[in-house]
C-alpha cells in the first residue's frame, strides 16, 4: 500500500490544458477560469510539437498518412495567392453526390485548386472515379491537382495558396490561423460548426458556408 497521502494527489478537474492561445479566445479562457482554478493555454500545439521534432533532429513524421510532396512542385508553378487548398481532414466523410457538387464548383470557379481526396473520404462504394463526367476530369487536368494526402502545414505556408476550403476541424483551423490563410468553412461533424461560426462571426477570417446551406 502506498504511503503517499491522498491529499497530495492532484484532482483531474482542478486544471485544464487547452490547445488554444489567449489572444484568440480570451473571453472563453476567462469563463473557464471561473470553473477551473487553473487553465493553461498551450496552443497552437502543432507549432510546439513541430519545434520539438526539429530540435531533436527526429526523422519521424508527425503524420500517420503518407504525404504526397509532389503537390509542392505543382504549387510552385501557380500564380501568387491563386490556389484554393481543399481538405476535409482525417475523419469526415462526404457522399458521392456532395463530392460531385464540390467538384463542379471548383472547376466552375476557374481558379487553380489542390484537393486532398483521402482514402475513406467518400461514403459508399465506387470511389472517386465512379460516374464522374468526362468534363470534370478534363478541366481538373487544366487547373487542378488531387492527392491522397498533402503536407498541410507546408501547403498553407506556401505563398501561392490564397485560401483553404476546410471542414473546420480545430487542428486545421489553428494551422490556418497561424499561417494567415483565409478559410471557406464547411463543417461536417462534432465541434466543427462552432469553429466555423467563430471563424466567420467572431474572428472575421473566413466564411461560414452553413449560413448559405441552411438559409
TrEMBL record:
<protein>
    <recommendedName>
        <fullName>UDP-glycosyltransferases domain-containing protein</fullName>
    </recommendedName>
</protein>
<dbReference type="GO" id="GO:0035251">
    <property type="term" value="F:UDP-glucosyltransferase activity"/>
</dbReference>
<comment type="similarity">
    <text>Belongs to the UDP-glycosyltransferase family.</text>
</comment>
<keyword id="KW-0808">Transferase</keyword>
<dbReference type="InterPro" id="IPR002213">
    <property type="entry name" value="UDP_glucos_trans"/>
</dbReference>
<dbReference type="Pfam" id="PF00201">
    <property type="entry name" value="UDPGT"/>
</dbReference>
Amino acid at each position: 500500500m502506498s504511503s503517499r497521502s491522498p491529499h497530495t494527489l492532484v484532482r483531474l478537474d482542478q486544471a485544464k490544458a487547452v490547445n488554444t492561445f489567449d489572444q484568440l479566445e480570451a473571453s472563453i479562457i476567462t469563463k473557464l477560469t471561473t470553473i477551473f482554478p487553473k487553465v493553461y493555454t498551450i496552443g497552437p500545439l502543432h507549432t510546439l510539437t513541430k519545434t520539438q521534432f526539429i530540435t531533436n533532429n527526429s526523422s519521424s513524421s508527425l503524420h500517420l498518412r503518407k504525404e504526397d510532396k509532389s503537390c509542392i512542385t505543382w504549387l510552385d508553378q501557380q500564380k501568387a495567392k491563386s490556389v484554393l487548398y481543399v481538405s476535409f481532414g482525417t475523419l469526415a466523410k462526404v457522399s458521392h453526390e456532395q463530392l460531385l457538387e464540390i467538384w463542379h464548383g471548383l472547376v466552375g470557379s476557374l481558379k487553380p485548386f489542390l484537393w486532398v481526396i483521402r482514402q475513406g473520404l467518400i461514403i459508399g462504394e465506387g470511389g472517386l472515379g465512379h460516374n464522374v463526367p468526362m468534363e470534370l476530369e478534363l478541366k481538373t487536368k487544366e487547373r487542378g491537382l488531387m492527392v491522397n494526402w498533402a503536407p498541410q502545414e507546408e501547403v498553407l505556408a506556401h505563398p501561392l495558396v490564397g485560401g483553404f476550403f476546410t471542414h473546420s476541424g480545430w487542428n486545421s483551423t489553428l494551422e490556418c490561423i497561424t499561417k494567415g490563410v483565409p478559410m471557406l468553412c464547411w463543417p461536417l461533424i462534432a465541434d466543427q460548426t462552432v469553429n466555423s461560426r467563430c471563424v466567420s462571426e467572431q474572428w472575421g477570417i473566413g466564411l461560414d458556408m452553413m449560413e448559405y446551406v441552411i438559409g
